[in-house]
Design a protein that fits this description.
This is ATP-grasp domain-containing protein. With 419 residues, the protein is an alpha+beta fold. Helix 2 links the parallel strand 2 and strand 3.
Length: 419
Amino acid sequence: MVKTLVFITQAYVNFASDAALEKVRSKVRTVLVLYRDEVVNARIARHMDDIVRVGGALTDNVRPVLSVEEMLVLVEHEIGQAGNADAVRVFCQEECNVLGAATIRVTLDIPGDSPDMVQRFRDKLEMKEAVAKHGVRVPGYEKLDRNRLSAEPQAYYDALVEKLGKRLVVKPTRAAGSFNVTVVESYEDFLVARKVVEDEIFRFEYEVDEFISGTMYQCDSFVRNGIVVFSGILELGCSNFDFVQGKPLSVYPAIPEALRQRLFQFNQDVVTALGFENGSTHHELFFNEADGSIVFLEIAARVPGGIGVPFHEKNSHVNLIDANLYYTVDPAWLSDIQPIVSNNVVSALLPVGHGTVVQLNEPKIESRYEIVWNVQPGAVVNSRSLVDNAGILTLYNDDRIVLRRDFERLQHYVPVTCK
């Protein structure tokens, strides 16, 4: 029986319902681990028995990577209080710390995801290699050679183009939210990418990928014993990279049934190839309408970020954070979660731009909508990843023709005027 639940970071826990957090706390001791300078979410704090702060590295990723050594001491103490390691669980849905959480589990013999499995979801080179071995189509790729990038950029660029094609994508192998991603269409772009790689304070490794054309989709899943039991499949209005460049990152749920079934099976094939057993995954892929091909992009062993969790709750009545909490504490509680899909909702994460915000702009659409703004006029903003956003737009319409029309209109919506 689980007696203690240790939350590593509060990221995404804010999407949990109060009912779920109350239910969890009624059964187990709840401990929240935060970075030492982080401001605690007041609503989350109300559901915690203890809040502990630890140090962490600020240059390893886009969010603080918490000290595994300090957390080991904390969790070992909780094991002593609970009586044994099987009575403790470690909960983490934040990309930069899922590997640290897995390391704690294996070191202290706590049930849950192992470092070997999580590593396949954290390192984009390893994940592509693993799924390709199972027959899943992936983009051409290779690890970025920093020595060649520095010493012979022109020759290196020419070699990459010959191998991977005229359009390239340079990106970190372990970041998140399209942080430091560069699309390269010329040698001049390649020099821009080199500057990003060499001047950045973060200690990332990088890869170079073939640019894939097609419509982007995401599959946000809940998995039990290796089987996908729920997958919210969404068409994306743009990529994460396009969002950083200024396009709203919108999602549309009404996928034609034949395509939905193909994407569902492709998603299951990827989950199986990577050996994922229980919990949530967030999978991005491309579908090419011209030839019907599906190409893997990447997958994470966690719930979706940004608008993902609230969207599925609105559209399918499935709160993926609640589901993961219930599975972690008492899997029998999962019977409380029953999908009811409506497909009458579109959501968009709004780009923030660069400079000083001078005006917030309403969208010109037909559907009923609401916006939760995260910025106000006078704010100084700089878009570098999905973390940097202006807010969330949600629109509702039972008329799917109008809903689709508004989804397409959002591709041209500029929510923030900056100077």
